[in-house]
Amino acid sequence: MQNPLSHFKLQIQDIDWRSLLPNAFLMMCCWSYVPFAYAIQIKTTVFSHDLYSLFAYQICIALAATIIFDQQGGSLTSIIPLLISFLFAISGFLHGNVFLFILLLLPPCYLLIFELYLHEFQNPVGLLVFGLLMTLSIPVAFTFISVKFLSWSYLLKLIPLLMIYCFYYAPLFLSDDPRFPMIEGGLGVILILTMLTRPIKATLLLAIALVILSWWLLQRSVANPHNQIFYTLLQLLTTILTFWV
After folding, report:
1. Hey, where are the domains in the chain?
2. How far apart, in whole angstroms, are the C-alpha atoms of residue 65 and residue 225?
3. Residues 7-11: contacts with CB under 8 Å, at least 24 apart
4. How far is CA 6 from the centre of its chain?
5. Please, is 191 exposed, middle or buried when counting C-beta atoms within 10 Å of its C-beta (0-12, 13-18, 19+)?
6. Average pLDDT by stretches of 10, the chain with 245 residues
7. Which pairs count as long-range contacts for 9-12, CB under 8 Å and 24+ apart, including other chains?
8. Taking a C-beta distance cutoff of 8 angstroms, is the pair 67, 75 a contact?
9. DSSP class of residue 199?
């Protein structure tokens, strides 16, 4: 029987380091693009030093999520960035806003539970909860720190972002579900309908075309957690095209 230290070393060796950092960077861009594109349109926007703590927090969450999905649970290596993310949430926001503090505690808590009970969460409900947390945590915190207020109109603008998360993370949550083709197709239709709430322009039409192409590609490839960087890249391109200002 392996001792914990040897087991931990083997888990570190199993990490795909070539895709870990690029995928984490792409995830950070997915979180940051929408609130940044919104914030630069507001004249009173101030990018304060609290954003440094938020970016450090994002790095930890992105690394942990990438490791969890790649190793399909049971990895002690994901616990380290999750614990560090708690520290950044506490040090960066507890003194400023309790709402942000609670909001930023939810993703690491969910990922920690997800890590321990991965297969119980790999279903449509787990996918929806993950999408909601990814949509409403970092983007909302980024906006509140920069703009100093939140409006219902901004939160409604995040609905397409929620569906983008659900659509592109479905292969990671539903890879073993025989209903995957049907669910992915339904998510694609809902995503396109929500995208049509955005101003109609060339970039939006390109985003819709990319969603259709992505659906075609996903239907013809085996859902594989090691394809994370491919899914994240498609997600980022779709996000940028959908929310292009």
Report:
1. 19-243
2. 11
3. 7/76, 8/76, 8/77, 11/71, 11/75, 11/76, 11/77
4. 31
5. buried
6. 58 72 94 92 78 89 90 76 87 69 90 85 92 93 86 92 96 85 93 95 96 90 77 96 92
7. 11/71, 11/75, 11/76, 11/77, 12/77
8. yes
9. P
